[in-house]
């Protein structure tokens, strides 16, 4: 006996929806069945954005800061920013340096007396408004072409897509959680499937927990206390 020798299992939307319907004790029969499943899947993806850091959606971006301008748009698919620095001397091995910039709340930003003061930015307020999130830095940059705002952000999971031929923007480790979640969502809509809803929800919670606990940073972490002295 030999193994297949391949690791290419990547089901398209049709296969995922069929599996979810079967878990509900039903069958995918009509175009409307696929449409309602696709809608439920997109709603579930929006819920996943609220459940924590999905590592496969972490992306990096850069904004070139301009003198006298303190507000800049972020990509429209931004969920939230994870890390951010001010980079100076970009591209030069001798001069490039990443400097800390602190995230502040709208309350803290509103209390700054002079929001037009110019210098190297040291604070950033992240406004996650729809449809275009944005950042406001303080102090306002005092030079053009010197500072870059470099950030790592969580992006939205891509939509399920029209038709049923697309694969999903989800790593294979989350296939079980995806199908289990979709089956649970469908059980609330398919006649006769409601009796399975509690079982499907329990399975979804278990599969999601297992996948999300594996989808984490595994680097060593050090906690160093800040030493302060009163003279």
Short description:
With 231 residues, the protein is of the alpha+beta class. The chain is built from five helices and eight strands; from the N terminus they run ααβββββαβββαα.
Order of neighbouring strands in the sheet with most strands: 1-8-3-4
Instruction: Tell me the distance between the termini.
Output: 76 Å
Beta-strand percentage range? 15-25%
Which of globular, elongated, flat, extended, rod-shaped describes the shape?
Answer: elongated
SSE run: HHEEEEEHEEEHH
Task: Compute the CA-based radius of gyration.
Answer: 23 Å
Structural class, by secondary structure, is: alpha+beta
Can you give the helix content as a percent range?
25-40%
Catalogue the unreliable spans.
Answer: none
Q: Could you walk me through the main structural features you see in this protein, from its secondary elements to its overall organization?
A:
This protein is α+β, with helices and mostly antiparallel strands. It is 28% helix and 20% strand. The chain is built from five helices and eight strands; from the N terminus they run H-H-E-E-E-E-E-H-E-E-E-H-H. It has helices at residues 13-23, 31-48, 106-110, 175-187, 197-214, and strands at 58-64, 71-73, 78-88, 97-100, 102-104, 123-127, 134-138, 147-155. It has a four-stranded antiparallel beta sheet, with no helix packed on it. A four-stranded mixed beta sheet has the order 2-7-6-5. A hairpin with a 6-residue loop joins strand 6 (123-127) and strand 7. The protein is elongated, with a radius of gyration of 23 Å. It starts with 12 loop residues before the first helix and ends in a 17-residue tail after the last helix. The model has no long low-confidence stretch (mean pLDDT 94).
